[in-house]
Write a structure and sequence with these properties.
This protein is an alpha+beta fold. It has 3 domains: 86 residues, Helix Hairpins (Orthogonal Bundle), CATH 1.10.287.90; 107 residues, Immunoglobulin-like, CATH 2.60.40.420; 103 residues, Cytochrome c-like domain (Cytochrome Bc1 Complex, Chain D, domain 2, Orthogonal Bundle). The protein has 6 helices and 13 strands. The chain has a 5-stranded mixed β-sheet, with no helix packed on it. It has a 5-stranded mixed β-sheet with strand order 4-10-9-6-7, covered by helices on one side. Strand 11 and strand 12 form a beta hairpin. The longest helix has 32 residues. It catalyses: 4 Fe(II)-[cytochrome c] + O2 + 8 H(+)(in) = 4 Fe(III)-[cytochrome c] + 2 H2O + 4 H(+)(out). Keywords: Copper, Electron transport, Heme, Iron, Membrane, Metal-binding, Oxidoreductase, Respiratory chain, Translocase, Transmembrane, Transmembrane helix, Transport. It is found in: Cell membrane; Membrane. Subunits I and II form the functional core of the enzyme complex. Electrons originating in cytochrome c are transferred via heme a and Cu(A) to the binuclear center formed by heme a3 and Cu(B). Belongs to the cytochrome c oxidase subunit 2 family.
């Protein structure tokens, strides 16, 4: 039922799979047993064989049996479930901590040395703790191969931890419906050998040489990294926010404190829209769907985004 190749993907796989198989085995046994008994009773006590109904009185022994046996079975299932769950809340003191941020509709992972990625990079055979932060609505971080899932509630401290046991790429996605582009809120966990991870982690050099010298290339990288394209299309289509195609330099009708007015989409407008997104709401769109990026984007980042917007003629 489960892939052997994933059996050591994390330290929690064995416990979760064992719990699942025990519970699945018990409920399967009773599903088959009860269904077979029902079918037997349909034929054994059909009307043609028993045209006259007979009153059946209680049986204390039977009552005790079918109370005790389910109680024991439920406690067995609870035991395996608890033994699989309990270690998930016991984080080792030396765990490597990564801040994991979920927002509509992308993931961002912030490392203690200042690195920020949209893919989760972790070392193999080392305890990793994820501090989970939801910036807007409910999210839920799920890594199927690791058998880990944790809901993320805005304003509430949540965490999960694991020890990855196999190198490779694993799916990571949101399992709490969080709006229009919930299904696209996916990324990967990349498990690396510890020496390779340390080399990657220590290397804080700018990745500019890897970026094309095409105008707006760095801005495109920034908007992809921060999930901007989940709400703003580049082809003119309408999604959660206004399309960016041909937007820069045009006139937009916005609603400011309930009053409609015309504004030019210039650098000041873009800066204010990113830092204070609920000041001026473009007519036809809803207020409150975008949160401020004041703590995520510097002004130089926004300038690069503006250069990218200028290329979208």
């Amino acid at each position: 039922m489960f892939s052997n190749e994933m059996a050591d993907a994390s330290n929690f796989v064995k416990g979760v799979d064992t719990s699942f198989m025990v519970i699945f085995g018990i409920i399967s046994f009773f599903l088959i047993g009860i269904t077979a008994t029902m079918i037997y009773f349909v034929f054994r006590y059909r009307k043609s064989r028993h045209p006259q109904a007979v009153q059946i009185h209680g049986n204390n022994t039977l009552e005790i049996i079918w109370t005790l046996i389910p109680t024991v079975l439920v406690m067995v299932m609870f035991y395996y479930g608890w033994m699989g769950y309990k270690p998930m809340k016991e984080v080792p003191d030396d765990a490597f901590t990564i801040k994991s941020v979920g927002r509509m509709w992308n993931w961002q992972f912030q490392y203690e040395n200042g690195k920020i990625t949209d893919t989760l990079y972790v070392p193999k055979d080392r305890a990793v703790k994820l501090d989970l932060v939801a910036l807007d609505v409910l999210h839920s971080l799920y890594i199927p191969a690791f058998r880990l899932k944790q809901d993320m509630v805005p304003g509430k401290e949540q965490f999960m931890w694991f020890i990855a046991g196999r190198e490779g790429d694993y799916d990571l996605f949101c399992t709490e419906y969080c709006g229009l582009s919930h299904s696209s809120m996916t990324t990967s966990v990349v498990v690396m050998a510890e020496d390779k991870f340390d080399k990657w982690y220590i290397d804080t050099t700018v990745v500019a040489p890897l970026i094309s010298d095409k105008p707006g290339a760095l801005g495109l990288l920034i908007v992809k990294k921060n999930g901007c394209l989940a709400c703003h299309s580049l082809d003119g289509s309408k999604i959660v926010g206004p399309t960016w195609k041909g937007l820069f330099g045009t006139q937009e009708t916005v609603v400011t404190d309930g009053v409609e007015r015309q504004l030019t989409v210039d650098s000041a407008y873009v800066l204010n829209s990113i830092y204070n997104p609920n000041d001026d709401i473009v007519k036809g769109f809803k207020k409150g769907l975008m949160l401020s990026y004041k703590n995520e984007l510097k002004e130089e980042d926004i300038n690069e985004i503006i250069e990218f917007m200028k290329t979208l003629k």
